[in-house]
Design brief:
Protein name: DUF7848 domain-containing protein
Distance between the termini: 24 Å
Structural class: alpha+beta
Organism: Streptomyces dysideae
Helix content: 10-25%
Largest sheet: 2 strands, antiparallel
Order of helices and strands: EEHEE
Strand content: 15-25%
Pfam families: DUF7848
Strand order of the largest sheet: 1-4
Radius of gyration: 21 Å
Length: 83
């Protein structure tokens, strides 16, 4: 049986600068069931907020679920060549 030695490497988790984060909102207003209207995925949070404002003006709905997604990269410490 072969033995392997694993050592702790203090990686840093950073947002992947090559991929845009994603923002979106869904209207969850409603007594019996949710409205369900969605902003769609946007790459700018201001665009989602503007969608929410317009939806509220049109419907008087005021409750939203917001989602944010991004990609993360594990970076090793400087000078550590990780394979």
């Amino acid at each position: 049986m072969s033995r392997r030695l694993f050592r702790y490497v203090p990686f840093t988790i950073v947002q992947d600068a090559t991929a845009e984060p994603e923002y979106e909102a869904r209207c969850v207003s409603g007594d019996e069931s949710e409205c369900g209207a969605e902003s769609g995925v946007r790459h700018d949070p201001a665009a989602v907020e503007e969608w929410q404002r317009k939806h509220t003006q049109e419907t008087r709905h005021t409750c939203y679920r917001r989602d944010f997604a991004d990609y993360a990269v594990m970076e090793p410490p400087d000078g550590l060549g990780v394979r």
